[in-house]
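Re: the 188-residue chain
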Amino acid sequence: MMEIVVRNLCKSFGGQAVLRDLSFTAGPGITCVMAPSGSGKTTLLRVLLGLERSDSGTVEGLAGKRVSAVFQEDRLLEHLSAGGNLRFVLGRAYDPKAARALLDRLDLPDTGTQPVREFSGGMKRRLALARALLAPFDVLLLDEPFTGLDQANRDRALAAIRETAGDRPVLLVTHDPADAAGSPVVTL
């Protein structure tokens, strides 16, 4: 059973503590991270991704693991189509049939060669999520993946995350208690 174990994690910026002695274990499936804005949720994910260094504490269970992520920003290549974005990021792992099936599941219509810059915000968000779910991963980190989605698309996205992740650890940053229903919750 794969787990992510965070022990006594601390992180400050300019003398301002953001993460204070945070400890938790995230096992298989979704673990939600909930706290008010500015509480360090994104910082936590950035530390787990290796984009920030913690001041102290340890993280176990990520060494040598493939981590896929959705950031608060979609980070898409605006001049490419949906398929072009997926092919660019996934490289040899790109499977057109699997991609189309997931895009259909996320209710993202076949946009052909339409550049992503012409997509709505919700379409971009679903594409960013599809990219993360299609990448080979051992751990999935999701920072507010449902921003800009209506309830039907949130439900589709959450179902796709649960099904795709299976028994792999997922850390889901969210403000919505409904997203955390039935999942362990880490509160910062």
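The mean pLDDT is 94.
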